[in-house]
């Protein structure tokens, strides 16, 4: 079984579609003034419906869920080419070819917020660092961090995520460097040099208090819109922004701990 969320397309269907992807959809289709999002996790579907004024229904097969696969393509983040296994890549060093099959999880990696988080990982991760991927999905960001030389802990609420992360990590030759767990992102206690959290602003604000005293290191945040949401996100996490990237209306930001900044 999977859950379908029907939401009004609204005056900006592209933005509404972006919200569905960020809220956990594994497929999005436009039809008759509606955007139809497919979800493997019913809780995420209910949250998306509540956030976007839609309704949830249940489908007993995967018809339409995988329709996005027909249109999937490769894309580039810095030196990396990221692609599904059924799409051929342009000529690229095998060390920079990342092959991701999201399976039933969220995370083909094509959404601007994921690309922003990936670019910021390239900016800040050095070999030998430890990285925590909070809300890992299919493991796109975990694998990029591992390719950059980090030891990675991947955490996700979706019970299908750890197996997808493991499969993709081994497919990309970094299985020994990525450890995946099924748990609430607020519950992790792993020391990290860098953590990455790619969720919408409402989730940033909901989980930030539980993350305040976790050993996250520098925090890369994405899934937020440029402008007001950047300030809200920094305030929620009680951190200051040190680096920023933008892709259209979406922003990705590196947040440094204020205590660390004040002592430097």
Query: How many beta-strand elements?
Result: 14
Percent range of helical residues: 25-40%
Which regions are unreliable across 5 or more consecutive residues at pLDDT < 50? 61-65, 259-264
Q: What integer value in Å does the Rg equal?
A: 18 Å
Count of DSSP helices? 9
- For the report, how would you describe the main beta sheet? 7 strands, mixed
Strand order of the largest sheet: 10-9-8-11-12-14-13
Which descriptor suits the 3D outline? globular
Structural class: alpha/beta
Q: What is the arithmetic mean of pLDDT?
A: 85
Give the helix/strand layout.
Layout: E1 2-8, H1 13-22, E2 27-31, E3 34-39, H2 42-52, E4 55-59, H3 68-71, E5 75-77, E6 80-83, E7 97-99, H4 112-124, E8 130-134, H5 140-147, E9 151-156, H6 161-171, E10 178-182, E11 194-198, H7 201-211, E12 218-225, H8 228-237, E13 239-247, E14 250-257, H9 258-263
Helix pairs in contact: 4-5, 7-8
Structure description:
The chain is an alpha/beta fold and 264 residues long. 32% of the residues lie in helices and 30% in strands. It has 9 helices and 14 strands. The chain has helices at residues 13-22, 42-52, 68-71, 112-124, 140-147, 161-171, 201-211, 228-237, 258-263; strands spanning 2-8, 27-31, 34-39, 55-59, 75-77, 80-83, 97-99, 130-134, 151-156, 178-182, 194-198, 218-225, 239-247, 250-257. A 7-stranded mixed beta sheet has the order 10-9-8-11-12-14-13, sandwiched between helices. The protein has a 4-stranded antiparallel beta sheet with strand order 2-3-1-4, with helices on one face. A hairpin with a 2-residue loop joins strand 2 and strand 3 (34-39). The longest helix is centred in the middle third of the chain and has 13 residues, at 112-124. It is globular, with a radius of gyration of 18 Å. The N and C termini lie far apart (53 Å).
